[in-house]
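Hey, I was hoping to borrow your eyes for a little while. I've been puzzling over a protein and I'd love to understand its fold better. The fold is given in discrete form, as structure tokens running alongside the sequence. I'd be grateful if you could look everything over and explain what you see. No rush at all, and the record is pasted right below.
>
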Amino acid sequence: MLINNSAGKLISCLLLTAAFFFPLVSGSYMLGVLSLVVIYLILSLGLNVVIGFCGLLALGFAAFYGIGAYVTALLNPLIALPVLLAAVVIGTALFGFISGAPVLRLRGDYLAIVTLGFGEITRLFMKNMDWLTNGPKGISLSPPVFLGLNLSDKRTVYYCALSCVSICVFFLYRLQDSKIGRAWAAIREDEVAAASSGINITKMKILAFLIGSVMAGLAGFFFAVNQSFVDPNSFGFDESVLIVCMVVVGGIGSIPGVIVGTSMLVLLPEILRTFLGGFEPYRMLLYGVLLVSMMLFRPQGILPEAGRKAELIPDTEEIKNDEDSNVYGERNR
């Protein structure tokens, strides 16, 4: 099912409204799972800007997630909550610019390899710089309290993160419909044609990378506050792959698709854990089989975007097949 922009906005609004009421009828365990869903939503929406809107294949996105979490853990005892959020945004934007500016002239596989290397360098830095990050032992933190807002309450963290998701969705829809969004779409479809039409390719790529990295940093902030602990193992390559899977399964470039894909990939293991019972050792095997099946039978994603060119199942192939069959029939006659 392809969805247009208006239908996508309606679906996104309905999903976020439903997410507002879920904690009211769930227990503490389910609240913890739902908190992970909204944190991953911020992450996957940020990566969707990079991969879906601009067409940049980034495989080290968990690095910005970790930077946001560690900035939160290190500065939390020193500064108030608004300044802490500003530090997270500025810190991840700075790292996004430093990592993005030199490498965004690359394309495709080369860009993926370089961003993968940046992600691994960041993880090793967190793991080995004991004097700053406390190494593999990690850092514990007390969630901040500001003007009566107590972030040690899991329900409060959930609703704050959900509010952040809602703001991000509104912002991304507005951005997608703007000149910047159209420039990103042009770069994604044909970078050479976009450059020849006067689009500043490097500037637009860096902007996409900055927005994505800031959103990943905000996800890291909520992760650190929700867990009250951060360590390097939470931000490895497998985390980056999981975020990419969320975007691809939902539908690259589709905001409601990313919401559905993220929710499915976070909730599905817990659902399997609940209903499989004695088959617990095979839970992740079944999880992998479902992902492979999804890529085989629905490669465009659960809710693909109508405005995005159908690269995996192009209409031109169907037209070409019809033309070939017509030509073949005429020759036989």
Observations:
- Strands lie at 139-140, 145-146, 149-150, 229-230.
- The CA atoms of residues 161 and 245 lie 21 Å apart.
